[in-house]
Amino acid sequence: MYVFDDDSLATFDSLVHKLNLVSLLGEVKPAVVMFGATFTGKALAPRVATALEAGLTSNCTAVELQKDGSLLQVRPAFTGNFLAHVKIRTVPAMVSVRYRALEAREKDESRKGDVIKKEVHKVESGVKVLGKGAAKAASIAGADVVVCAGRGLKKAEDFALVEQLASALGGVVGATRPLVDDGWISKDHQVGFSGAIVKPKLYIGVGVSGSPQHLAGIRDSGTIVAINSDPSVALFRIADYAVVGDLYEIVPQMIDLLKK
Ligand SMILES: Cc1cc2nc3c(=O)[nH]c(=O)nc-3n(C[C@H](O)[C@H](O)[C@H](O)COP(=O)(O)OP(=O)(O)OC[C@H]3O[C@@H](n4cnc5c(N)ncnc54)[C@H](O)[C@@H]3O)c2cc1C
User: Fold this and answer.
1) Is 229 in the pocket of ligand 1 (CB under 6 A)?
2) 206, 164 in Cβ contact below 8 A?
3) DSSP 8-state assignment for residue 188
4) Are residues 53 and 146 in the same domain?
5) pLDDT for 72-83, tens place per residue?
6) Which of 63, 239, 251, 260 has its CA 20 to 30 A from that of 9?
């Protein structure tokens, strides 16, 4: 394992991080380079790929090592309606992988390896930190319970109902894109193809129809519960529990029961 451990890297600076990574990859020559499809990973991966003239598949939802040693990358295409299977011819093959797309392996204490500390190249990139925002209390992508509101809500104030249900279950609130576009809730709550891919143990869709773009973000959830007045919606087709009815009647009853 190679480690860069230096105070100068404490604040993310894409140019400084790129420079150090490109020089290490040039020396080590790995077959595959993987980044998390996070804010920093997405800023870094294309810069490193360009410097190395390597192919990069971004935002993968799965990666699979093939028998011939090549890496198969899977990522949503055409707004999540298709899954593209990609192979990169260049070496290294570079990918960025969406949060929670891959399961962490069990810790294996028997495995041993060398930790090699690398010297950090210091460069003046001109980036200055003017201030820092507060960290989000709970990330929707990492939550075990997500209660997601859809356009079944009649007005922004009704989010209070969804928030109460989420808090009774110890979960976080999600939303479909139209509610985010209308400014009812911030973008970091958006679930789906162009929002967060969630993988909770329990997902509850409240007045959510289940568009392909939304389903692309919830497919790997453990138990899926859908509450909708229309029995023909797509979300019911993948739901483990389908509750047909008016959310304004059902959700308050659920909150009451959970409180008891
Ligand atoms: C490029 C692109 C990217 C996109 N990315 C995303 C994304 O990341 N995430 C996302 O969610 N969408 C995304 N969309 C939008 C997506 O196509 C759908 O428009 C959206 O998911 C629909 O949201 P909805 O289910 O809340 O609304 P609707 O489809 O309007 O569904 C509302 C549902 O509420 C039900 N309902 C109404 N009243 C009640 C009631 N009283 N009780 C119970 N049920 C009720 C209705 O029966 C209906 O099924 C994207 C679109 C594009 C083009």
Assistant:
1) yes
2) no
3) G
4) no
5) 999 988 766 778
6) 63
